[in-house]
Design goal:
Structural class of chain A: mainly alpha
Oligomer: heterodimer
Number of strands of chain A: 0
Distance between the termini of chain B: 64 Å
Largest interface: A-B, 49 and 34 residues
Radius of gyration of chain A: 22 Å
Distance between the termini of chain A: 55 Å
CATH topology of chain A: Sodium/glucose cotransporter
Largest sheet of chain B: none
Number of domains of chain B: 1
Strand content of chain A: under 5%
Order of helices and strands of chain A: HHHHHHHHHHHHHHHHHHHHH
Number of strands of chain B: 0
Helix content of chain A: over 70%
């Protein structure tokens, strides 16, 4: 076991403080907007901390580290694409500025404002399913990482992860977005320090010449050139860039930070500054993965190689701090995601179906119950589902199930006057079909007829879903302009701030 | 060290510095953001 008593003390003290503060801040929740969007009181620095912490879970380290181990430096392109996408959204305010101006709490709320209730229900359901499936593997990967770093082995996995989930659920269910942002801030600070110290130690222990030689001999040109790397290529680059732009603007856990911000201007600034960190967010764990390749050589379990490296190299105390930081990272991701998906199902599906809706108190209660159910699902799903290819591709294809349709629906809804409810419905459904087909058919790829093989190519499936969604919106709207005239939003009435 | 590795290492260095610099600034400024929320009169009528 790599974990010493000092490491244990650091981890336990840190977790105890987090839970205490997370539960304590529930006193600031006065109403539904307090629970879901922190009363729209978030300023730039706190917004950047909570946004980055949300998008930086242990699973992020695992899939980026894994990519570094199996592709060398070529995967660094993903960091550059994320940087371009998030800073562009921050600079232009693409989608997020308008959604914040309208005072939305969830993205499907906009579907009803611009289209109708049915679009909101369908959009909310697709977002909920895609979102929960997306986080379905988090627990499993977090478990692999922590058990390897701590040196427990796989048998302790279930226990560690169940305990962590209970801790996160306790404060997320009670305190909503206030608990999320305050604990996210602490987690961001601890994790950033641990990442800095870890990077320095990896650089000291595995020198750059060794890494460079290992990449050259192990991967050749595909270790530095993403275009020639068989896992990437142009279709991957275009798909990931579009997905990143869509996710930046429309991925509820992230977008909720813009919707929780003080003003549309603050929302843009949060995205701009956070976007600047996104290349580092990807490249730092990827670099640890490349270092693991240089240190162990090929042949290790690709998911476990990077955590094993950290378990071997990090000294007593720093290991405890890193594990505390990683637990923190996971907790902040879980809390934001669980709150985001439970809010969507409650506000955009259950409350819309119920005539007259529910009171704010009942709505918060329903959100809390759904949060608990999502937690239970994560445990069950994480244990049995076999993940296709690498974790990174699973994460992106489940995300695409929602973002492809949402990008077409929201961007056309905001910036194209002819967009109507039929077009929106077509975009949402067509955007979800190909990724869903991939997830179902991927395990049967060998028995499928040749003409259907494109569905089981993750890069093609992802890219195609955006094209289908865009076509669905354009063709669906243009063909039904007379029977379903587009609804024009009254800017004066819709403006919240 | 090949040109490809050198380019990625330089980019890695730049973006790692950006990441940690922003983290340091946010860590300092974020404390005052939290204080503002705690002292917000709209959110402090729970006593």
């Amino acid at each position: 076991m790599n974990f010493s008593p000092i490491d244990w003390i650091i981890m336990i003290v840190y977790l105890s403080i987090t839970v205490y503060i997370g539960i304590w801040v529930k006193r600031y929740v006065q109403n539904l907007s307090g629970y879901i969007v922190a009363g729209r009181k978030i300023k730039v620095s706190l917004g950047v901390a909570t946004f980055t912490a949300t998008e930086l879970g242990t699973v992020t380290f695992v899939y980026f580290g894994e990519l570094g181990y199996v592709t060398g430096f070529s995967c660094f392109i993903i960091g550059i694409l994320a940087l371009i996408a998030y800073t562009t959204v921050g600079k232009t305010g693409f989608i997020i500025e308008k959604l914040r101006e309208y005072g939305m709490m969830t993205i499907p709320q906009f579907y009803e404002l611009r289209f109708n209730k049915n679009v909101r229900i369908v959009g909310g359901l697709i977002l909920f399913i895609g979102g929960v499936l997306n986080m379905g593997i988090f627990l499993k990967f977090d478990g692999i990482f922590l058990s390897e770093v701590m040196g427990f082995g796989p048998q302790a996995l279930g226990f560690i992860m169940t305990l962590m989930l209970i801790i996160v659920m306790s404060y997320t269910i009670l305190g909503g977005m206030f608990s999320v942002v305050i604990t996210d801030f602490m987690q961001y600070v601890v994790l950033s320090f641990a990442m800095l110290a870890t990077t320095i130690i990896v650089l000291l222990e595995v020198d750059l010449t060794t890494i460079s030689d290992a990449v050259a001999s192990g991967f050749g040109d595909s270790g530095v050139n993403p275009i020639v790397n068989p896992r990437f290529g142009w279709s991957f680059i275009i798909w990931i860039l579009i997905t990143n732009i869509a996710a930046a603007a429309l991925w509820q856990p992230g977008t909720s930070k813009a919707l929780s911000s003080e003003s549309p201007k603050v929302a843009k600034k949060i995205f701009w500054v956070t976007g600047l960190t996104f290349a580092g967010r990807a490249m730092i764990p990827m670099f640890w993965g490349v270092a693991a390749f240089a240190y162990f050589g090929p042949g290790e379990n690709s998911t476990a190689a990077m955590p094993m490296l950290l378990g071997e190299l990090l000294p007593v105390g720093l290991l405890g701090l890193l594990v505390a930081g990683l637990l923190a990272a996971s907790m902040s991701t879980y809390s934001s995601y669980v709150l985001a998906w439970s809010s969507v199902l409650t506000l955009d599906v259950i409350s819309v179906i119920k005539k007259g809706g529910y009171s704010e108190k009942t709505t918060i209660r329903i959100t809390q119950v759904i949060s608990g159910l999502i937690g239970f699902f994560l445990l069950i799903f994480g244990l049995w589902y076999k993940i296709p290819e690498t974790a990174f591709q699973y994460i992106f294809i489940t995300g695409t199930m929602y973002t492809a349709g949402a990008l077409g629906t929201v961007s056309a809804g905001l910036y194209w006057k002819k967009a109507n409810n039929i077009g929106a419905m077509c975009a949402l459904i067509l955007g979800a079909i190909v990724p869903a087909g991939f997830l179902i058919l991927e395990s049967y790829s060998e028995t499928l007829p040749g003409w259907m093989s494109f569905v089981t190519d993750v890069n093609v499936a992802g890219f195609l879903s955006f094209i289908l969604a865009a076509l669905g919106m354009i063709v669906g709207s243009l063909l039904t302009q007379k029977s379903n005239p587009a609804v024009i939003i009254n800017e004066e009435e819709a403006r919240y701030v | 060290m090949s040109d490809g590795v050198l380019i990625w290492m330089i980019l890695f260095g730049i973006f790692a510095v950006v990441f940690f610099s922003i983290a340091a600034i946010v860590a300092i400024k974020g404390v005052s953001d939290i204080k503002d929320i705690m002292n917000d009169p709209e959110l402090n009528n729970h006593d």
